[in-house]
Design goal:
The protein is an all-alpha fold. It has one domain (4-228, 236-459): MFS general substrate transporter like domains (Growth Hormone, Chain: A). It is 79% helix and 0% strand. It has 18 helices and no strands. The protein has helices at residues 10-28, 30-33, 35-42, 46-57, 63-74, 76-99, 103-132, 137-165, 176-214, 245-258, 262-276, 280-287, 289-308, 311-331, 337-361, 367-396, 400-426, 435-459. The protein is globular. It binds the ligand NCCCC[C@H](N)C(=O)NCC(=O)O. Ligand LYPLPQDE is lined by residues 24-25, 28, 117-118, 121, 145, 258, 262, 351, 375, 378. InterPro entries: MFS, MFS_dom, MFS_trans_sf, MFSD1. It is found in: Lysosome membrane. The chain crosses the membrane at residues 51-71, 78-100, 179-200, 245-265, 285-305, 312-334, 340-362, 369-392, 404-423. Its main location: membrane. It comes from Klebsormidium nitens (Green alga).
Length: 460
Amino acid sequence: MMQRSDLKSRWVVLVLTAVILAGSYFNYDGPAALKAPLQETLHLSDTQYNLLYSVYSFPNIVLPLFGGLLVDRCGTKASLILFVSTIVLGQGIFAAGVALRRYDIALVGRTVFGMGGESLTVVQTTIQAVWFQGKEMAFAMGLGLTVARLGSVINDWVMPAIYQSGVPGLLPPLEPASALSFGFFITLLSLGCALALLLLEVRTDRFLAAQHKREQAQPLLHDTAAGAEAVVEHMSLADIQHFSASYWLLTVSCVVVYATILPFNNVAAGVIMGKYGVSLEVADRLMSIPYLIAACINPFMGTAVDLLGYRAVMLTAGAAALAAVHLSLAWTMVPVVLPLVAMGLSYSAYAAAIWPSIALVVDGRAMGTAFGLTTAVQNGGMASMPIAVGTLRDTTGSYQAVEIFFACVAMVGVAVGVALNVVNHRAGGGLNRVAKRRDALEKKLEAVIREDLEADSQSR
Ligand SMILES: NCCCC[C@H](N)C(=O)NCC(=O)O
């Protein structure tokens, strides 16, 4: 039976989902690129500044789980439009709050932005998993993250420039709200791409339904995460208890390892300026290195995962490399470019392995919920880390304790990775195998079971 992953238009879907997410990532990292001007204009301490990230993540300790359920129950189309509209609204409120010098409104804006932002990553990953299932999934997710991360990198370059010079006749210079308003226009671009994707999905539904009718297969019921297959069973929260041990270990790994990457980026400019005595502009450029490296090599890392497997090994090695990076930032004076490049490489290896791994250990009909739950737990880490980091920085007066803390968290990620390798090996080692070989083995197994059942019914 023909599926979405058999269609060439999956590449258009990849471009659209990537650009949609790039708009979200661009704005997520907005405060990091404007850290000093924001703190100056709104008179914020480090803790208050970091709260702009924590409030993004607080609602997401729960919301993406329901976002994922919504994706599985109502489909990707409605969820996509809902979540993109929410980031447009949130960014608008955030920019207005900063323009009005109202920290409380700015916090509300970041909260609303977060309510859409993380569930958007869930629906985007689910759409990519559905359209690339059994094909170039890790490559597609890697390329998607590349474009999204380019959003972060462009943000690091464009936001300080717009802050400095404004947009003639439109946005005044030396005003952080100008840069944030520019970010609002970027979210409108994401909305435009989401509407284009909606049209494409509707046309694909019609095409596949007609195709299935011709093949006398079951009609297409709706566009759930299970894609073009006829799905009648609905995922419910209770089904979470059937997720495997590998899934839970992947989720714990995701929360601890990402907690050493994304929250580091929020304070990277401060770490670099404090340790190496460079200006904000130079620090902003330097801090874009990890995301830039990751953006450049994500598709290659993804291809390596598609061709070689070794997902569980790769995500353990990625965590170990991140621990080394943070220790070197805490205790050595090596040129800062080295640990930043190493961070980009390890982040990319980790991201290329973790997201496709989740798609491999859960059933198709639970994909949105699984991504949602992982993202929810991940946000627990992303909500608490900035507070811990801000408090450590405010109490010790330097970033050394912060870096040692990041390294310890990464080491927990190594331990979880080792446990994952053991558990997965006992369960057949699917995560470290190539997906196509894994599919072939599963098909062989199904055929043997079917033959057994047929022989059984004939002998009765
Ligand atoms: N919007 C920035 C935070 C992204 C969090 C998201 N759940 C995620 O982890 N995405 C993958 C990545 O590597 O950024």
